[in-house]
Design goal:
Elements: H1 9-19, E1 25-34, E2 37-47, E3 52-58, H2 65-76, E4 87-92, H3 97-102, H4 124-131, E5 140-147, E6 154-159, H5 167-175, E7 186-187, E8 190-191, E9 196-197, H6 211-217, E10 222-229, H7 234-253
Parallel strand pairs: 3-4, 3-5, 5-10, 6-9
Antiparallel strand pairs: 1-2, 2-4, 6-10, 7-8
Helix pairs in contact: 1-2, 2-7, 5-7
Bound molecules: zinc ion.
Length: 257
């Protein structure tokens, strides 16, 4: 993969700390110790207590930097502002700092963190992410990914069974103005409809649990795993992610809880 491999997690931490909105709570979910290095796994919480809750996360795969960059830009450009009165934001800017620095999908121990949510003894990074679900499910779970092989943007949509929504389609319609969609009828072995992967396996059918399935099992209402295509320049991928976040928040704001 040709993504920039000179990423510094410390720079991400510095950017996030500098950009965190007033009255944010900045939690260190855990400290990842690797050799002489220590990586604090940060979560930022802000917005309206008791409002709709959204978890925005990125960088669980270290070689997918646009998500991490998008989260930093989301904070720095205060794109959350129109939603502060209605939403409580929970943001994990980079779940896999060692992979982010090395430019690898896996962490320093060679583990694909997005396959480890059902493990009895998951890696520390995963245990940290799981801990944020302890206070109850989120209304919306937005997970930012990239796919170096895809021809365009696509997303996985997972809902609780009793919840029907065209939110995924709305996100895709908006992102398409920024980046072409992956129009293949099958993506990553799932049936796809112009970039929408909504007919997904349930947890009982899966050999492993990614984060979105863990969120689903925890009772989160609506999960999106959003994938930009690595074929496009970083700036365009960041823009695609920011568009996806914005449309998800805007459209979900109209939905009653
Ligand atoms: Zn990924």
């Amino acid at each position: 993969m040709n993504f920039n491999t000179s990423n510094s997690y410390q720079q991400v931490v510095d950017r996030v700390r500098a950009a965190a909105p007033a009255h944010s709570i900045i939690d260190t979910l855990g400290n990842l110790e690797v050799g002489n290095a220590s990586y604090p796994l940060l979560k930022i919480t802000f917005g309206t207590r008791g409002g709709k809750t959204v978890l925005i996360s990125a960088g669980i795969h270290g070689d997918e930097p646009a998500g991490v960059e998008a989260v930093c830009t989301f904070l720095e450009s205060r794109l959350y502002e129109p939603y502060l009165g209605e939403w409580e934001f929970h943001v994990i800017p980079c779940i896999n700092p060692t992979g982010f620095e090395a430019g690898t999908r896996e962490n320093h121990a060679g583990e694909d963190l997005n396959r480890a949510f059902q493990w009895e003894h998951p890696p520390l990074e995963v245990a940290c992410v799981k801990s944020v679900f302890a206070n109850g499910p989120f209304d919306l779970d937005l997970e930012l990914h990239e796919d170096v092989d895809s021809v365009g943007y696509y997303l996985y949509q997972k809902d609780q069974d009793n919840f029907v929504s065209d939110l995924g389609r709305k996100i895709l319609d908006a992102v398409e103005l920024v980046m072409p969609l992956d129009e293949n009828e099958e993506i990553e072995e799932s049936p796809a409809d112009r970039g929408l992967l909504a007919r997904l396996k349930g947890p009982e059918e899966m050999d492993f649990w990614p984060m979105a399935i863990y969120a689903y099992v925890q009772g989160c209402r609506h999960m999106f795993t959003m994938e930009t295509s690595g074929r496009f320049p970083l700036k365009q991928r960041i823009e695609a992610h920011l568009t996806g976040i914005e449309v998800a928040l805007r459209e979900f704001s109209r939905v009653s809880r």
